[in-house]
Design a protein that fits this description.
Layout lengths: L1 H6 L1 E5 L1 H7 L3 E3 L12 E3 L4 E6 L7 E6 L5 E6 L6 E8 L2 E3 L13 E4 L3 E5 L9 E5 L7 E4 L7 E2 L5 E10 L11 E10 L2 E7 L3 E2 L3 E10 L6 E8 L7 E10 L15 E3 L3 E6 L6 E9 L11 E7 L6 E6 L6 E5 L6 E2 L11 E9 L5 E7 L25 E5 L8 E11 L13
Antiparallel strand pairs: 1-2, 1-31, 3-22, 4-5, 6-7, 7-31, 8-21, 9-12, 10-11, 11-20, 12-19, 13-19, 14-18, 14-20, 15-16, 15-17, 15-19, 22-30, 23-28, 23-31, 24-25, 24-30, 25-26, 26-27, 28-29
Length: 433
Amino acid sequence: MAAPLAKQVLVAIGGDVATKYGTPVWRKGLQARGGEISYTFTRTGTGLFVVSDVPNGGTWKALTAAQNAARVEQAIDPVNNVLQNYLLLEAAGTNLVENSDYEADAVGSSATSGATVARDSGHAFNGSWSAKVTTANQNGSGILLQTRAGTNIAATAGTIYSWSAWVYAGGSTDGAAVGKSVVAEIDWFNGGTGNGSTIGSPVTLVQGWQRISVSGAAPANTTNTQPRIAMNGAQGVIAFWVDVPQFEASVCPTSAIPTGTGAVTRNTERFGVSFSPSPGPYWFYARFIDRTAPTLAGGFPDVFGIQAASGSLWKQFVYGVGAATGYRGRNDTGSPPQNDTGPDGKPSVGQLSEVLLLCNADRTIQLRVSLNGAADMSATGAAVATAYPSQYGTAPVTLYVGENGSGLSNLLFSRVLVGTGTPTQIADVRSVL
C-alpha cells in the first residue's frame, strides 16, 4: 500500500524530512487560506542540541538554537543503529546545577576521594571551558556538584530526578581515560545525614564526549543531594573533562541547559503546521524516540495531534498514559471526549516508538503501536462514533508535535505523516515519505 499512500500524504514533519528536503516540514499544495506558511515553532529563549561527527572519527558537540528556532538533533537510531536526524521537542526543564557552563569559574564543583578539579579550556562541550578532573588511584575519586554557596542542592522526597554530565575522555597523551570505568551517582541527604544513594551502571569511557547519567526517586525524608561522577574502582591516575552537568526533576535527562550563577529553565517547545484537510477518513503516523515514556502516574503528555484553529471544532491526538499502559488515541470533541482502549504494553525510555492513528469517516479512532520495530500490537477498540463538525474538511487545522498537555514530553521525531485513505497497519506507512 506504500505507493498509493505516498500520493495521499498531506503533511510530513521530522528529521527524515529535514534530511530529504532541507526543512523539517513538507506539505502538499498551498494552504487554503492565508498563503503558504512552512511551519510555526515557539520556544522562549535558546536551546542546545547535539550533532555528531562520530562516523568520521570525530565526536559529539553541542550547538545552540536561537529563540523560536527548531532543533534538529542527531542520534543513533535504536532499531537500525544508523546516525539520523531527529526533530527535538521538549517540555520545560530546569537545571538545578547553578554553575554548569564553567565560562566564568568552577565554583560549586568539588573534588572527591583525593581528586583535583580545575576550570580548564583543553576540551569544552559547550562554550570554551569545562572542569578538568584528575583522579587519585582509588574508588570514588571524581567530581561532585553543590551550589555556588557550597551547600548541597535541594531535593524533594519522592520526586524523580535525573543527573547527567557530558564527559570527555582522551588517550594516553590526553588524560589516559579511554577504557576506564566511571559511574554517575546521586547521594541523598536528610539535612546533613546520609539518606542512601542512586548509582548508575558503570560506563566504560570511549574517545571523545559522551553523556553519563542516572535517574531515580529521592528516598523518603530527603531534603538535599550531592550528584557526582566518580571512578568505578581504583584504576590509576587519569584525567577527564566534565561539561554542562545537569540535575533536574525529570524521569530521564533532557537536553543540556548551561547555567552560570543560578538555576536556568529551558522553556516548552511547540511545533505546528497549518493545512486544510480533505473531507473523509484520514490517518496520522509518528516514528520517534521516546525520552520520556509515559512513566509518570497522572501524566498525560501529548505525542502529536491535529486540531482546528478554533479549539471548539475538533481535536484528535495520541498521548501517553501512566505506569501500566502505553499510548492512547483520543477524540477531544463532544461531551464526553472519547478514548480508544489503547494497546497493551509500555515503551521504555530511549525506545523507538511508532504509532498509527486511524481516523475513520464516522470519527471513531483506532490506534496501532509498534515498539522497536516489532509487529503491530493488536488493533484496539474504537472510540464511540460521533459526527464530525460541519466545518470539517473546510476549516484550516494545525498538526502539532510534542504538545505537553498536563504531563511531560521529551521526544525525538524522525517523521510524522498525515494522509488520506485507509491504511490498516504500520507496515503500510512505515516507508512512506
